[in-house]
Write a structure and sequence with these properties.
By secondary structure, the chain is an alpha+beta fold. The protein has a single domain, classed as Ubiquitin-like (UB roll), CATH 3.10.20. 27% of the residues lie in helices and 42% in strands. Strands 2-1-3 form a three-stranded antiparallel beta sheet, covered by helices on one side. A hairpin with a 5-residue loop joins strand 1 and strand 2. The longest helix is centred in the middle third of the chain and has 16 residues. It is elongated, with a radius of gyration of 12 Å.
Length: 59
């Protein structure tokens, strides 16, 4: 049986600061996948790889 995707709320911030670049919800198999997807989108949107990403599962 295959694992099902769950919703994860992600927050992308500039590293070392509190400035939020974006908050998005992703459907992913694991929190690591959600963080990876958010990181790639954050780097693209922010034009910098100096970012921090957090993911939390939504109920």
């Amino acid at each position: 049986m295959f694992p099902t995707a769950k919703k994860y709320k992600t927050v992308c911030r500039r590293a070392g600061g509190e400035q939020v670049v974006f908050e998005r919800t992703y459907e992913a198999i694991s929190p690591d996948e959600a963080r990876a997807r958010a990181y790639l989108n954050c780097v693209k949107e922010n034009n910098s790889a100096d970012v921090e990403v957090a993911a939390k599962r939504e109920l």
